[in-house]
Amino acid sequence: MALKVRMLVARLVVAAVLTAGLLALIFTDHPGHSGLRNATVLIVRHAEKPDVGTELNARGEQRAAAYADYFNPLELDGQTLTPQRLLAAGDSPESVRSRLTLTPLARRLNLSVEQPYINGDVHDLVKLLRKGNKAPTVLIAWHHGHIDKLIKAFGGDATALMGQRKWPDGVYDWVIVLRFDDKGRLVPSRSEKVQEHLLPGDGAMLPRI
Which UniProt keywords apply (predicted)? Predict the structure, then answer.
């Protein structure tokens, strides 16, 4: 009898260990169980800035206003992409430009501009999306000095996408398109850099690294 009890206890322990392991796999934050399944993430730099100040310059305001039509919807590679979620780098004493870049589009789409993290917290931003995102298309406006790190946090190669590791200082008219598969993994072959051609002179500025 005692032997049977010990065998039963041993089996229960094994079952408990297996169950705990299975639950850990289910709830672990990894691409196979993420909010990025079949999602498209669009990344832009905030619009043009003045020499002094925290907001946008006149051309930046034009670009932000033009985004209300450009992304509503964005026609790309046979897809019609309309963002259901807008995220921007958190305001700081130096800049509120990321939020202002998306504000006209947010009004058009009747969405809020979420600012859960400041510029350097790109890994936390990606973790947030992997855990609880429900939007098929997400648009992010960020500061150019950290976009390469943001791409890497999503599992991408910034150099392959942009042709160089860092987003150039003088460029404001690129859209980085990241596409994810049904397991939430980035698909490099379906990800790309798009030239906006949104305002007069777009594409004509020489990138300053």
Answer: Cell projection, Cilium, Flagellum
